[in-house]
Each structure stands twice: as C-alpha cells, then as structure tokens.
Amino acid sequence: MNKDADPVTPLLELRNVSKRFGGLRAVREVSFTMGAGEIVFVIGPNGAGKTTVFNLVSGFFHPDEGSILFQGKDVSKLAPHLSARLGIGRTFQIVKPLANLTVLQNVMLGAFMHTGSTQTAEAEATKVLAFLQMSHLKDFSASGLPLAALKRLEIARALATKPKLILLDEVVSGLTTNEALALAELIKRLPEWGVSVVGGVEHVMQVVMKIADRVIVLDHGAKIAEGIPSEVVKNPEVIEAYLGAKYKELVG
Ligand SMILES: Nc1ncnc2c1ncn2[C@@H]1O[C@H](COP(=O)(O)OP(=O)(O)O)[C@@H](O)[C@H]1O
Ligand SMILES: [Mg+2]
C-alpha cells in the first residue's frame, strides 16, 4: 500500500458518471471507487466504454452527468494537463511516441512535467527505464521500436510524470502471451512505487486474472458486474455480454 494512503478517502471515485456522443450513451451512470495501492481492471467488449471512462478520468472529456473525485477533490471539469499535475497519468490505446526523439528523450518529456532541470529529468527517466527493463533501448529512436517496447515506452513516459494513479488503456493488447505476462509482472509492482493502476482490456486474459485486485465489467456503457476476477468470469450476465458480442471465450 502507498504509505501516503488516506484510509478513509478513496483515491478515485466515480459517482453516476454518464457521457453521451450525440444520441449514443457511451458511459451510463457508472460508479466505482478504488483505494490507493489497488490494481483495478475495467473490462468489456469492444465499444463497451472503457476508453471513454479513461478519457473522463484524465480530463480529455467531461461527464454530462455525475462526478469524478480524485483524493476527494472534484476533477470532473479539469483540463487534461491539470489532471496530470494532480497525479493522474495515462497511456493511450493508440501508441504515439515522438518518433524523432530517442527513448530516453521521450521519457524525459514526462519528467519535465515536474522539473525544469534536464539533469533531474534524465536521472528520473533513466530510473524509470531501468524499472521497465528498457535501459538497453534508451538511445534508440522511438520510431523503430517493436510494439512490446512501444507499450513499455508509453508506461515509462507516464511513470516519469510521477503519477499517483496510472490509467493503462489496452496496455497488453497485441502482445504475445509471454510479452504480456512479462509486462504484467512489472505492472503488479507499481503499487510499491506508490502508483495505483486502472487498466482497461477487452478480454479477461490470464494476465488480468493474475494481477487485478478487482475487475469492473462494462457493457454498452453500463457497469454490469464488479468483483475479484475469478468470480466475475463466472457471472452469467458477464458471460452473456461477451457471448452477445460474439466472443467465443471470456478468458482468452
Ligand atoms: N469521440 C467520440 N465520438 C463519438 N463516439 C465515440 C467517441 N469515442 C467513443 N465513441 C463511441 O462510444 C462507445 C464507447 O467507445 P469506447 O469508450 O472507445 O469503448 P471501448 O474502449 O470499451 O472499446 C463506442 O460506441 C464508440 O464508438
Ligand atoms: Mg478502448
């Protein structure tokens, strides 16, 4: 657990959050809370509203109804850069590093959010890259990296901003099982750094089953289940949501 954790106020709380795009209700009255030190995964079929929830929590969108509280403070209407400053870090489903910069320089950009010193930024970026087992790639151009390294670079950049909470959207998608398991081992250690995690994935993959303290299931924008992974996958409503989306297997 994060030693700064306040045992009473949740780290993150969504209260009846809704978001529409024209006539489409992308997120419908979603509520959940999470404490510091937790690893929570939001799962649901493609189009369920996972990325929209991340965009809402990180200030890229604002809820039409409901509110989002971070450490007890209402962040519903905050702009993305202010939400990042408060300690909400994120990665993007579509990986987008600055291709003309090296891996180290990309990560330093994250550190510059809280320091003006190039030396400090480089020291912090170096530390984060070591944690993500990417030190050997630091001088490579970000443009030539394979997907597994790009996903780690996204996490590294977000970690360098020193977040209290990191939102990892589809961070293991597209990776081989071995790559995903290796990355999961690192994600599992983030709470040791005082970083709580909300991940988002389509399938309840083995890796999610292993590292998530809790999963929240979205279907058509609404929360249909919440609990420990091994119980949620047995929930008939959850199975139905995936079958309805023509998923043959819930645990991929
Ligand atoms: N910026 C947007 N404008 C219009 N519709 C959107 C936008 N973002 C997402 N949607 C729609 O909202 C629904 C939820 O999408 P999304 O949150 O991306 O789902 P997921 O990440 O679970 O696949 C989808 O129907 C999607 O097409
Ligand atoms: Mg998505």
Concise description?
Helices cover 33% and strands 24% of the residues.
Per-chain topology:
Elements: E1 12-21, E2 24-34, E3 39-43, H1 50-57, E4 65-70, E5 73-74, H2 80-86, E6 88-90, H3 103-111, H4 118-131, H5 147-160, E7 165-169, H6 177-188, E8 196-201, H7 206-211, E9 214-219, E10 222-227, H8 229-232, H9 236-244
Parallel strand pairs: 3-8, 3-9, 6-7, 7-8
Antiparallel strand pairs: 1-2, 1-4, 4-5, 9-10
Bound molecules: adenosine-5'-diphosphate and magnesium ion.
Adenosine-5'-diphosphate (ADP) binds at residues 21, 24, 26, 44, 46-52.
Description of the structure:
The chain has helices at 50-57, 80-86, 103-111, 118-131, 147-160, 177-188, 206-211, 229-232, 236-244, and strands at 12-21, 24-34, 39-43, 65-70, 73-74, 88-90, 165-169, 196-201, 214-219, 222-227. The mean pLDDT is 91. 33% of the residues lie in helices and 24% in strands. It has 252 residues and is an alpha/beta fold. A hairpin with a 2-residue loop joins strand 4 (65-70) and strand 5. The chain has 9 helices and 10 strands. It is globular and about 50 Å long. The longest helix is centred in the middle third of the chain and has 14 residues, at 118-131. Helix 3 (103-111) crosses helix 4 and helix 3 (103-111) runs parallel beside helix 5. It has a domain at 12-94 and 165-244: P-loop containing nucleotide triphosphate hydrolases (Rossmann fold, 3-Layer(aba) Sandwich), CATH 3.40.50. The strands form 2 sheets. The protein has a 6-stranded mixed β-sheet with strand order 6-7-8-3-9-10, sandwiched between helices. Strands 2-1-4-5 form a 4-stranded antiparallel β-sheet, with helices on one face. Bound molecules: adenosine-5'-diphosphate and magnesium ion. Adenosine-5'-diphosphate binds at residues 21, 24, 26, 44, 46-52.
